[in-house]
Amino acid sequence: MADPTETACPTNPGTDPSEALSCLRRVFGYDAFRGEQETIIERVVAGGDALVLMPTGGGKSLCYQIPALVRPGVGVVISPLIALMQDQVDALRALGVRAGFLNSTQDLDERRMVEAEFLAGELDLLYLAPERLRVESTLRLLDRGKIALFAIDEAHCVAQWGHDFRPDYLALSQLHERWPDVPRIALTATATEATHGEIAARLNLTDARHFVASFDRPNIQYRIVPKNDPKKQLLELLHTEHSGDAGVVYCLSRRGVEDTAGFLVANGIDAVPYHAGLDAATRAANQSRFLREDGVVVVATIAFGMGIDKPDVRFVAHLDLPKSVEGYYQETGRAGRDGQPSTAWLAYGLQDVVQQRKMIDGSEGDDAHRRKLGAHLDAMLALCETVECRRVRLLAYFGQASGPCGNCDTCLTPAETWDGTIAAQKFLSAVLRLARERRQKFGAGQIIDILLGKKTAKVIQHDHDGLTVFGIGTELSVAEWRGVVRQLLAQGLLAVEGDYGTLVLTDTSAEVLGRQREVLLRREPEKPARAAKSSSRSGGSGKRAAPVDLPAEAVPVFEALRAWRAATAKELGVPAYVIFHDATLREIATVSPSSLDELAGVSGVGESKLAKHGEAILGLLGVPAA
Ligand code: ADP
Ligand code: ZN
Predict the structure, then answer these.
(1) What are the residue boundaries of the Helicase C-terminal domain, all occurrences included (predicted)?
(2) CA 388 / ligand 1 centre spacing (Å)
(3) Which of these ranges, 166-170, 298-302, 427-431, has the smallest mean pLDDT?
(4) How far is the CA of 518 from the centre of ligand 2 (A)?
(5) Is 579 helix (H, G, I), strand (E, B) or coil?
């Protein structure tokens, strides 16, 4: 594909710092570095090691791609994402970068060809699956070529207790022993202190400079809503705010995935399922549709998503409570990599708490492991129940201080707290009386019926209308009581036991019953927050809503550019975003360039893409050929 004689950036052993900037402009078509990219790139170009913690969409790839282009030799990128290597390489080739990969999906001939290119110095970047490095022949191959740097992508996979541990990553500590002079750059979007330390230790990054970027993703609007009828709530979100948009919907179970995908399809949404129970071919086909086409919604378990670098995912929705804040932030971070407004939406209810507590109790492993799971869940629950800015909470979890963001549900529609001490006492004493007077345990539903004084068949059958607590809680509705129970569980003032979700008191319940402790609860705002911009988007299904920040006259041009992009992507067999990102098309539609020179000034239009697509774009804009 790429012409081996042309090199994207001339390699320069003298490493002039301006080389990196000119590479950014020429190859990638961007004006300036973002955040710490420049310092990181300088460090690696000069031969130093780096450990980079940056959120998804922060711009990690350039941190190793540019040094690989500027330094002599081939940049070797270790990545666990075999299924995505082809797309990554295609995206680089579209920029005129000479990239290749070696992994288990290739046959011998394909591998030999890439190996020959590597040895001939005809590659700028070589992507390798970590397990390749366990094969002695790969190590010998690398010995025979010239290596510019090692980039260790998704470096958190080396962390044993993290959520994505991969044993093959442990072997990466040998890179330094075997090639002590080759700089290494490790990158991850996972940012807790613990993971950070473990990466540095396990990869022997003793002399690395650490770069910890802000983890804020200001373009993502965080919203957590009470769960009533989750599929319907989701459909409403799609219809009113994300019509025709690409998005990811996460469910906990395979059945949840199938149910939800089926429901969305039946309601006219272009949705596909993705979970580990589907055969590999179906999974690959569904992932490929999501990546390549515009506006596909993938409904998935957490098996989906790592390394998906589709820039224009407009929403990530969770229909079940994630197990940790770390996982939640990674999953939601897949929205809006292109920096455009996006939504992270989570529906959460009492049943989630009950289910997850049960799962933890029944989980394998020792007590320490269960305590760790419990602590993860508690942090997630605290995020759900907070009346403060969600973003402040999220960033605090990663050790970063911030102020109210103005772009989350609690900032947009502040939630109030109310003194729920009396309600808590009523509920806990009902649990206590059932246990003491009747030696019985029940789930939330029955206890709420008792408090509301409902003479249901089950209440009468158990003589529960004879309890002194019968009918003492009519001041709250069922939904409000469920909110109380959910929050008591979240605060550890109540616990779930056994397979039926029966409720029992905890050590701290007594403090509430004995009036030594106040209980502050969150009151759901009457009208949940919604994107301020949603009103400018057309509702209804099928037709795509107008892009948020586009002047009316530019909309038809943007649509024409998108249609051209879809056709071109299909013809070249690459994802649409490999041709140009939405943001680039949007800028073209807005500034309406009248020459190749002007087009070159648009962000995302580098030399190679200008040469390939410049004339077609100008033709589309009605500029007469020069
Ligand atoms: P990460 O790997 O950290 O998730 P990427 O490397 O995929 O992020 O970058 C996210 C998006 O930002 C990509 O679309 C990329 O092209 C774009 N980007 C990165 N750096 C810059 C920059 N300096 N100027 C403009 N766009 C950039
Ligand atoms: Zn906020």
Answers:
(1) 230-381
(2) 30
(3) 166-170
(4) 26
(5) helix
